[in-house]
Amino acid sequence: MTILAVLIPVSLCLGGIGLAAFVWSLRTHQYEDLEGDQYRTLFRDEPDA
Amino acid sequence: MPLDNGSASEQAILLVPGLKCAACMTRVEAALNGVQGVISARANLTAHTARVAFDPDVTGAEDLVTALGREGFDARPMDSVHLGVAASDRVDRDLLLRLGVAGFAAMNVMLLSVSVWSGAEASTRDLLHWVSGLIALPTVAYSGQPFFKSAFAALSVRCVNMDVPISLAVILASANSVLETARSAEHAYFDAAVMLIFFLLIGRYLEHRTRAGARSAAVELMSMTGRTAMRVTPDGTKSVIAVGDLERGMIIEITPGERIPADGLISHGRTELDRALITGESLPEPAAPGDAVHAGMLKLTGLIHAEISATGDGTLLAEIARLVDAAERGKGRLDRLADKVARIYVPIVHALAAIASIGWFLANGDALAALQIAVAVLIVTCPCALALAVPTVHTVATARLFSQGIFLKDGVDLERLAEIDTVAFDKTGTLTGPEPELIAAPASNDPAWGVAAALASASRHPLSRAVAREAGLRGLVPSALNGVTEHAGSGVEGNLNGCRVRLGRPGWAGPAARDGMEVILSQPSGTSSFKFAEEVRTGAVETSAALSARGLDLAILSGDGQAAVTQVAAATGIGNASSQMHPGDKLAWLQARRDAGRKVLMVGDGLNDGPALAAAHCSMSPASASDVAKTAAGLVFTADNLGAVAEAHRIACTARRRIFQSFGIAAVYNAIAIPLAMAGQVTPLIAALAMSASSILVVLNALRLRGNR
Question: Which chain A residues are closer than 8 Å to B26 by Cβ?
Answer without folding.
Answer: 43
